[in-house]
Structure formats: structure tokens, C-alpha cells
Specification:
CATH class: Alpha Beta
CATH architecture: 3-Layer(aba) Sandwich
Order of helices and strands: EEHHEEHEHHEHEH
Distance between the termini: 28 Å
Shape: globular
CATH topology: Aminopeptidase
CATH superfamily: Gcn5-related N-acetyltransferase (GNAT)
Structural class: alpha+beta
Number of domains: 1
Largest sheet: 7 strands, mixed
Strand order of the largest sheet: 1-2-3-4-5-6-7
Oligomer: single chain
Radius of gyration: 16 Å
Length: 211
């Protein structure tokens, strides 16, 4: 992904918007914050570029965001040189309510056209999180940790997290995150994975501290 290929003039946060930050090994600061409405078209264009055209439409992405803005989290790279922030990716989640989780388990949940009736409204504790999209090349480890902090343990702690491997890169990521929770038969593209995001972050912290 060329971080300079997307407009960044809309990437400045609104006053008072909370940011979650960590310093990358190269000295840049990685920032995760809730997506702003004006950024949705840019994130959708990035999704098409990185994942392909068979993704949810921009209209659908806007609808999910309007229903629950906590579904989208922008990832920025803040250069140590003092240059403007650059878009590094984003995480998209479907905050499934009980009916949404049942639909996922029945394999009737559509990621391309999710029914908003299956998604918890803003401020509600969902029954599960479904990773709708995750683009964070070269910053994924820090971004995972920061988005877990951003979501917060009070509302989201202990929730099951699910994802579908749509690319080989995504499959590799899910194999790492969910290896303790799945059997070998599930390690394939297109299958739904259950991961423990909190434990995965803790394992990576422990691994990094022991290195």
C-alpha cells in the first residue's frame, strides 16, 4: 500500500477526539482513533485497492458507520520528522447483537450487505465482534494493541471476536491470532475464525518483551 496514494487532508482529528498512540520501531507514532464521517470514502477506496472489488459498497459502509460509528477505526502514521499524518489503514468491525451472532453461527450473515438489525447500536454492548476489514501493513502489531485499548474493556472486554480469511495475508494473520482456539480443519480461506483478541495482544506483548 502506498501511504501517499490517498488524500490525507481529512485525516486531522476533530477537537477533543481521543487518540491511542504507540511508537513504532522506526520512530514514527502509530495513531488509532475513531473514524470521522469524511474519511469513509477514503477507507472504502483503500479497501477496494487492498482486498478487491467484491467488498461492501460505499453506501453500505456509510450505513454501518451511521448506525454505529464505533465500527470503524482509522490507523495513522505520524512521522517523527513532523510531517503531516499519513493513512496507514483501518479496522472495521460489525458489532453483532444476539441476532447477529446467531446469523454468523448459521452462516447467514452477509459481510457485503449486512442487515443493520443484526448490528448493535452505538453505546450498546454487542454479543460479539466480527472483523469486517483489517488493513494495517507494517503496523498491525501496534494497531491491534491500540484498537483493543480504544474499544475498551468495560464495554467490549471478554467478547468473542470472529473473522473470515478472505486473502492469504488475512489467513496468516488469523492463524497467528486464533491458533489456540481452532482445529486444523478450519485453517482455510473463506472459513470463519474465532479469535481471542485480548489474549492475542497479551501474547504478543509477552513475546516482544522476551525478545
Amino acid at each position: 500500500m502506498d501511504e501517499n496514494a490517498f488524500p490525507i487532508n481529512a485525516m486531522s482529528p476533530s477537537p477533543g477526539m481521543r487518540e491511542f498512540t504507540a511508537t513504532h520501531a522506526d520512530g514514527d507514532v502509530i495513531v488509532v482513533r475513531m473514524t470521522q464521517a469524511g474519511e469513509v470514502p477514503t477507507l472504502h477506496a483503500l479497501t477496494v485497492l487492498e482486498i478487491g472489488p467484491s467488498v461492501a459498497s460505499l453506501e453500505t459502509m456509510h450505513g454501518v458507520y451511521k448506525h454505529n460509528p464505533e465500527c470503524l477505526w482509522t490507523i495513522l502514521r505520524r512521522p517523527a520528522s513532523g510531517e503531516p499524518d499519513r493513512l496507514a489503514g483501518y479496522f472495521g468491525f460489525l458489532h453483532l447483537n444476539a441476532a447477529g451472532l446467531a446469523a454468523l453461527e448459521a452462516r447467514t450473515l452477509s459481510g457485503r450487505e449486512p442487515d443493520l438489525a443484526l448490528i448493535a447500536a452505538a453505546g450498546e454492548r454487542p454479543a460479539a465482534l466480527y472483523v469486517w476489514a483489517g488493513i494495517a501493513r507494517k503496523v498491525r502489531v501496534l494497531a491491534e494493541m491500540l484498537v483493543a485499548q480504544a474499544l475498551g474493556a468495560e464495554r467490549y472486554g471478554g467478547l468473542p471476536v470472529y473473522a473470515t480469511a478472505g486473502t492469504l495475508g488475512g489467513l496468516k494473520w488469523l492463524n497467528h491470532l486464533g491458533e489456540a482456539d481452532r482445529g486444523p480443519a478450519e485453517n482455510a480461506l473463506g472459513n470463519v475464525f474465532r479469535v481471542d483478541l485480548t489474549r492475542a495482544v497479551a501474547q504478543r506483548r509477552a513475546s516482544n518483551s522476551g525478545a
